[in-house]
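Self-study notes.
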Amino acid sequence: MPRFRTEAARDSLLRRVRRQRLKYITILPSLITILNGVCGFAAIVLAGKGTAPRLGQFTGEPGTPFVVFGGRSCLAMAGYMVLLAMIADMLDGRVARMSQSTSSFGGQLDSLCDIVSFGVAPAFLMLKVLEYKLAGSTGLNPGLASLLHRFIWLVAAAYISCTAIRLARFNVENEQDESAHMSFMGLPSPAAAGVIVSLVIFHQETLPELYTKNTQAYEICENAIMYILPFVVLGIAVLMVSRIRYPHILNQYIRGKKPFAHFIRALLFLGLIIWSRQAALVLIFCGFAASGFARWFYYKLLGSRLAIRREIKAPNVVE
């Protein structure tokens, strides 16, 4: 008899759970979120268009390792699709809060699309760029080339893993209140993806122009970007899962009434974007990622110095 009561209670619980189905969703924010995921998927498709470098497409000279699609670098186009996904990611939450239609469904859908657009797509893009670089390196030892390929794969896997952890932690700790969205704990995944795609876009669109003017400068810049890119990706992966606080740019510096100095900074950024879109993207995203770490390191160092001074002054206070 007790067994029957237990099974009956279990069946009753299962029936109640089955009845708790999703009945209503907000259409517009969900569509914008889906656009985010579609842009991430498009970035992956564009990044995988070429299987081998097609040389001389931009300059007419042999030896230029760029893959093109539709007259433009498909890797740069993939980067722009990730940037478009960032705009959709920024809009969906804003629209949901303005319409007071935030929901757990929207938060979960947003994270699923973010892992594609800001986790898988940037990692795959970085992987393809570095694979093309290794494929174009002649005279490289086969054993060293195999080791470098494995290292690049590990870097991409570490980045995707940290992005997933970052998004899962955000879902657990996130609050629906607008006042709780003034800063982020850890580097936001869209900003981390922006660091990668800005470097790729700069590599694909600005360096070909430099190649026509100064071949030696092109080789220095191209090698510098390729060699530091895996370590930059590892660094931002660590920053995503760290507890370093980053400001919400829109809420803290743009929205509402702000000091006149903020307006001057905004004009300078707009001027930089008009002058060189590719360089502006690199400075904005890399500067934002580095600013949080620099601020944390400064206050950490300042706090240690203050603690040492207190310890030195403590005996005099006791006397």
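Second protein, same conventions, sequence then structure:
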Amino acid sequence: MTPPRPTPILAEFDPNVIRRRLERHEFFWADLTLDDEATIGEIQTTFGLGPGPRAALETFVDKGVAVAGDGPGAPRRLVYVDADHVVFPFSYVRWRHAEIREGAGALDVHEVNVVLHGDYLLTVHQRAGDLRELVGDELPSGRTERYVVYVVLEAMTSTFFRSLLVLQDAIGRLESDVMGEGRTRRGDAMLIGGVRLCLSTLRRHVGPERVLFERANGEMEQIPGLEADHGRYFDRISQELDRIIDGIDAVSGGLSSALEVQLNETTYRLTIIATIFLPLTFLTGFFGMNFDWMIRQVDSAAAFWLFGVGGCVAAVLLIVGFLARQGTVNQPGADRER
């Protein structure tokens, strides 16, 4: 018995190979980049796409244009459905975790337009990209076609999880600086700004993607000729997108907590300084008054050192002793660690 072959991956545009597989109805995955490998017209001719799938395929979110054929001013259709096709956008993060760790720049999110047909899965990039870096050079063999589609979409979805893990690690290091050392490092401000920008980028892409995929999910289940089994694979993608949104909220809460701790540390130090200087301010004001008793008593250098300087030193010692007895002058981060 011949073992089942894995679903082929076509990473280069070859019209002859694609036509032969379409004629034999052999399911395959084609991952193409516009202009670098093929134009929209060449893709339409080779895959036999109608005007509706073509218009949806060439529409990317960052272009901000209306779908062709809808007329000027018409709302954009981000999910296209007909009897044989489902076309929808999907995004993934190009992995540059080193920049995230240093808090530099936003996440590099790439958008892919996905075309699902009973005979093929087509992913089209506007910018150069190769999804085999995420999925691998081979798709699983002996599995259904819907599972193959799930593997590709899940690989893209997992990049958002990895980005969240890196952001959580960055916030953990920020909390360690504040809680352990009692201060923030010079690069922490840049790190905070980078984490905020990354979280904003994730929410801007994952939020709409979750809504759009909920629509595409039900339509993909109805694609004719697409081999299926009992697995609810597309529902898993929807659940993962929900968990990503929850993870973004959790990381945002962690960042807010870290900033609150940082603000509390600053307020704590200012309070200590104000407490120490409060009696000193009183003493300087008292000895600055020119009444008869002060003039008669403070009439020598010894009296000045005793009442003036000695009074200030005694006041500082009393305040510090009181704060030490209350446990306030210890590092708050060290107390919490103990």
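Instructor comment on the second fold: The two ends are 66 Å apart (CA to CA).
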